[in-house]
Every structure is written in C-alpha cells, then in structure tokens.
C-alpha cells in the first residue's frame, strides 16, 4: 500500500470522510488487477461480485446493442466502476475494456463485511457514499433520457458524467 493510493481514495466521493486508518484497513484486504490494453475487466452479463478503482491507464465502458458496442463513458485514474455489484450482486450491466494498460484496486463484498465487523460506522458511511454515487449517476441518466425524449436526439455532452 502506497500513500498515493490513500490520497487517491480520499479524493473519491465513495470514500469521502472515511478515516485514513480505515482506508489502510481496506487496502490491506483489497485485490489488485492489471489488465492489458484491449483486454476486458468485466463483460456485460457476467456475475457482479466486485468493484474497481482505476489507479492507472484508461478504460472504456460499453454496452451491447444489436450486436454492436456502444460507448457509454471513458474512465481514467481515480474513477471507479462496478460499485453497483457491491450493492445488488446482479449481473454486470455493461462491459469495461482497457484502452491503455491499466492497474486497478479490486474490492469485494467480503472486504466490506470485514470493515463492518471492524468499524460499523465507517462501513455505514461507505454504504451511504455508494448510494449517493449511484443516485448521482441515476440523476444524470434521467436528464439524458429526458433530453432524448424532448428532442429526439443526443447531444455530444449529454451522456458524460
């Protein structure tokens, strides 16, 4: 675990107001994933059992539509994906592919359970932060859907969050 990892997590909304000792606790238990350019972190429809925090590289989030991949979002260092998997344990709703070689921190529900047993109040704060992030993304999606419904078209910036 490096100080740069702690610093990166402290800047992320999901880990907002989480104490440094708790971030260290999570990082000691977290996995680490290296994915080469053009390889996949996760594929749409796979079991959702972990989230990722991108430490380096660049990735893209795509969804399949009539046999084609549609770009939903680009990810860079400090971005996270797969957080819904920590909440609902449903299959992946989209795929994430590395554009450049990537390194990511990998968090699974069992590591959050360890945190719950270690510090329930910090666990609750992370859960609230996860809920806020998912709600923020839902609001952005609602705005996008409203825009499409009212204009019949997507603007170039409509889907970015």
Write the topology of this structure:
Elements: H1 3-10, H2 20-29, E1 31-35, E2 40-42, E3 51-56, E4 59-65, E5 68-75, E6 80-81, H3 85-88, E7 95-98, E8 102-107, H4 109-118, H5 120-151
Antiparallel strand pairs: 1-8, 2-7, 3-6, 3-8, 4-5, 4-7
Helix pairs in contact: 1-2, 4-5
The total domain count is: 1
Residue ranges: pLDDT <50 for 5 or more in a row?
A: none
Reported CATH architecture: Sandwich
Global morphology: globular
Structural class determined from secondary elements: alpha+beta
Strand percentage, roughly? 25-35%
How is the biggest beta sheet arranged? 4 strands, antiparallel
The total of helices stands at: 5
As laid out across the biggest beta sheet, the strand order is 1-8-3-6
Query: How many β-strand runs?
Result: 8
Distance between the termini: 29 Å
The CATH topology is Jelly Rolls
Order of helical and strand elements: HHEEEEEEHEEHH
CATH level 1 name: Mainly Beta
> Which bin fits the share of residues in helices?
25-40%
Average of the residue pLDDT scores: 92
Q: What is the rounded Rg? A: 16 Å
Q: CATH superfamily assignment? A: Jelly Rolls
């Amino acid at each position: 675990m490096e100080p740069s990892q702690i610093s990166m997590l402290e800047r992320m909304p999901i880990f907002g107001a989480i104490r440094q000792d708790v971030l260290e606790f999570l990082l000691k238990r977290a996995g680490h994933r290296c994915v080469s350019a053009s390889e996949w972190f996760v594929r749409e429809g796979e079991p959702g059992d972990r989230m990722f925090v991108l430490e380096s590289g660049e990735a893209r989030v795509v969804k399949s539509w009539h046999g084609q991949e549609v770009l939903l979002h680009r990810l860079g260092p400090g971005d996270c994906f797969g957080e819904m998997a920590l909440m609902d344990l449903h299959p992946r709703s989209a795929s994430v592919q590395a554009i450049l070689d990537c390194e990511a921190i990998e968090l699974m529900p069992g590591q959050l359970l360890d945190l719950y047993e270690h510090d329930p109040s910090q666990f609750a704060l992370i859960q609230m932060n996860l809920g806020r992030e998912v709600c923020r993304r839902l609001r952005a999606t609602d705005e996008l859907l409203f825009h499409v419904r009212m204009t019949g078209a997507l603007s170039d910036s409509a889907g970015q969050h």
